[in-house]
DNA sequence: GACATCCATAACCACAGGTTATCGATACTG
DNA sequence: CAGTATCGATAACCTGTGGTTATGGATGTC
């Protein structure tokens, strides 16, 4: 009998959440679809995995057994994928690097150029990461390294090489009243709605709404976005304002968006990030060295 | 990224076979369907797994990596299934036992009755196994124990409790010329086609074509069957003759099939079989004890 | 030169698996 | 106690995945 690992992930989510509706949300599925998935898994296994009640879904004995065993299956699959990816990188001479928004700004190209000098037969493939789960690609092995903004979720599980620091500014719709002013402080913005990253990103989200500079005052969230495009649109729409690295004014200049200086918020730091242990040798080591040589 | 373990099994088969067409046959699929599966797996992983040529499919580097890692994934899934099955058996009080053809003949019912005395609240569920892969259910955990004929594939990976020994006879179409004779020897049968088990069963197949009693003479295979029904039909059809346990004359008596004594072939042995370590305690231990008490 | 072998492609079909809308049952809540 | 929110199941519907047969093109083989 076979399974789609997807069913296992769904199952794990339901087991954890104890509630179909909420699990469905987390999985970006409708609740009936998830109902079907769980029923399918149960019929494939020939065992009842959950006790349904008005209070939600509770694991049965067999359900507990699966909940205990499923992570090992998923982990072994992740391992397999990483192995394939590593072999593929070796064979096709491609180093995959994820980046967030403007990556390392003006340093991005020089770093890649420096790497190509060390490894002329290799290519670097950049792929954009959403800020919903910026390290996703690193976990799964889809990507060898990433240009990240600090802090990011589960940062201590990775090696981090800081590259540059830049001040942050504030982005808002061009017709926003505050856009009249040349420069602002956090005090001016305490009542404004902010465009934020998904709640799951924890410290990352907090950093970009400057939670520490609000003196405990709660934030109004005007919209939640995952990618630069949604983010820009939301700002231009007037859904809220947002903190941004100063370089955004160069890389994301638009007539309907104004960027203004702001005082009293910590700067933003860009780093190169890779899984612990992976950077010891091979092309990734050269990429890291190239980046280190160009770091501030 | 997710996979269906099915794709992994297909992949493993192609890798092993080195040939799409033959792998498709083994998987009971059309060749284009298998082509699609492999392409899908490749696109999901973003890596080329095979080098296609006129000589077949050869693994690439990433392909080798996956071939090395896939068995672990499949094994962990099998483990998970066994865990679920065990918990389910515990919860629903069902012991599942597979059997081959006539199981343990007249001992089957007494063994089950003796088990029920020890575990009155448990049920025994018997399910027929094909001889294509008689231990399949044990590997996957679908079944807790099985009544088997010795020898069977990978026999040393299981615990084996011999239950009874019976002579073998020869089965043939009722209108077969040799059916006139009361008793036969292997020498009479050397030119006859035999009905055999699938080639993958190795020693099991050899045992039932009495490969060791032919003095090295090759066998003609009249048909390959997996189940008693096909087997009986093939014999009645005149596709060939077949060795059978003597009890077949009782359990599979048909007007169009004749069973005759044969000398010079080893007897057949029936045993109870279960995964190593599983019989130490719990209901399976009681079932084993019940069987042991009734063994010859 | 005819043929066999092997993988890819095309055209087609069924159904798995998703969606929205709705239901029935239960537990909070004012 | 009525009204409402919550939870999972069900129905009706639609699309895309994944199967099938038939066929093609390339390359060895007798």
TrEMBL record, chains A, B:
InterPro entries: LysR_HTH_N (IPR000847), LysR_subst-bd (IPR005119), WH-like_DNA-bd_sf (IPR036388), WH_DNA-bd_sf (IPR036390). It comes from the Bacteria. Pfam families: HTH_1, LysR_substrate. PROSITE patterns: HTH_LYSR. Keywords: DNA-binding, Transcription, Transcription regulation. The keyword Transcription regulation applies. Residues 3-60 form the HTH lysR-type domain. The keyword Ubl conjugation does not apply. It comes from Glycomyces artemisiae. One of its GO terms (molecular function) is DNA binding. This is DNA-binding transcriptional LysR family regulator. GO terms for cellular component: protein-DNA complex. Belongs to the LysR transcriptional regulatory family.
């Amino acid at each position: 009998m076979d399974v789609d690992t997807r069913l296992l992930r769904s199952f794990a989510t339901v087991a954890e959440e104890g509630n179909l509706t909420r699990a469905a949300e987390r999985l970006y599925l409708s609740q009936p679809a998830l109902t079907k998935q769980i029923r399918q898994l149960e019929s494939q296994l020939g065992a009842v995995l959950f006790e349904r009640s008005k209070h939600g879904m509770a694991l049965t004995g067999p359900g507990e057994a699966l909940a205990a065993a499923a992570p090992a299956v998923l982990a072994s699959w992740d391992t397999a994928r990483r192995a394939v990816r590593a072999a593929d990188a070796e064979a096709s001479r491609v180093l995959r690097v994820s980046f967030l928004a403007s990556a390392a700004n003006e340093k991005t190209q020089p770093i890649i150029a420096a790497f190509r000098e060390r490894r002329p037969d290799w290519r670097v493939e950049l792929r954009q990461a959403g800020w919903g789960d910026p390290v996703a690609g690193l976990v799964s092995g889809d990507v060898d390294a990433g240009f990240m903004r600090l802090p990011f979720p589960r940062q201590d599980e990775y090696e981090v090489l800081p590259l540059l620091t830049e001040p942050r500014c504030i982005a808002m719709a061009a017709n926003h009243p505050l856009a009249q002013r040349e420069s602002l402080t956090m005090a001016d913005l305490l009542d404004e709605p902010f465009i934020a990253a998904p709640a799951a990103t924890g410290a990352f989200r907090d950093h970009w709404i400057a939670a520490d500079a609000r003196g405990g005052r709660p934030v109004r969230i005007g919209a939640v976005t995952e990618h630069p495009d949604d983010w820009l649109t939301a700002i231009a729409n007037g859904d809220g304002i947002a903190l941004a690295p100063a370089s955004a004014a160069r890389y994301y200049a638009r007539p309907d968006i104004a960027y203004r200086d702001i005082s009293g918020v910590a700067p933003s730091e860009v780093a190169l990030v890779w899984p612990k242990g992976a950077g010891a040798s091979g092309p990734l080591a050269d990429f890291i060295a190239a980046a280190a040589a160009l770091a501030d």
